[in-house]
Amino acid sequence: MRSPRRLGLSAGGERTLMSMTVRTSGVRQHSIWASVVSDDAQGLRTWLLGLGFTEDLLIPGEAEDRIHHCQLDWPEGGRVLLSSTGERPTPCLPGAGSFHVVTADPDAVMARAVAVDATVVHELADQTDYPSRDFTVADPDGNHWTFATFAG
User: Fold this and answer.
1) Which letter does DSSP use for residue 98 in this model?
2) What DSSP string describes 21-53?
3) Distance separating alpha carbons of residues 37 and 147, to the nearest angstrom
C-alpha cells in the first residue's frame, strides 16, 4: 500500500508534493469543480485540452503515464479535476459523469470536438424550449459533455 501524498500550499500559489514544487497560475476559479477519474487519464487530458481546456496544474502519478492530480480550466470559467483510476481515494467511476460547460461559442467548440474525433451524442442545435445553442459529446471514457450558451 502506498503512503498518502501530502500537498502543502504556500503564499503565491506554490504547492509542494514530497520533493516536487509546482506552481499554478494563481487564478482562483469561483465555481463548482467537477472531479473526473479515468482509466486513461493522459488520453482524457489530451482530449479535453483539444476541446479548449487549459492546464493549470499537473502532478504525475506513481506509475508512468498516470496522473495523480490535474487541474484543467475552462477559459470562460470553471475547472475540472482529473486523476487516473486508483491514484486517489474517490467514489468517482470512469465514464459515469455528465457535465454542462457554458460557452459563448458552441460552434467553435463543436469544430474542436470534431477535430478530436469526439462521439457526438446530440448535434449542435438551437433549443426551442429554453434559450441555448448547444451540443453534447461523449469523451473516450463515456462521460457526456454538453457545451451550451445556456448559463441558467
Assistant:
1) E
2) EEE-------S-EEEEEETTHHHHHHHHHHHT-
3) 20
Tell me the residue type at 16.
T
Q: Each residue of 21-78: pLDDT tens digit? A: 656 676 655 577 889 999 999 999 999 999 999 999 999 998 899 999 999 999 999 9
Which residue is it, cell 509546482?
22
List the one residue out of 97, 110, 109 whose CA is nearest residue 144.
97
Element (H, E) at 57: strand 54-60
Q: What is the pLDDT of residues 90-140, one digit of tens each?
A: 888 899 999 999 999 999 999 999 999 999 999 999 999 889 999 999 999
Partners of residue 73 on adjacent β-strands: 54, 79
117 phi-psi bin (left φ>0, alpha ψ -120 to 50, beta other) = left
What domains appear along the chain, each with residue ranges and CATH number? Answer: 32-148 (3.10.180.10)
For the chain, the residue count is 152
Q: Are 101 and 93 in contact (CB under 8 A)?
A: no
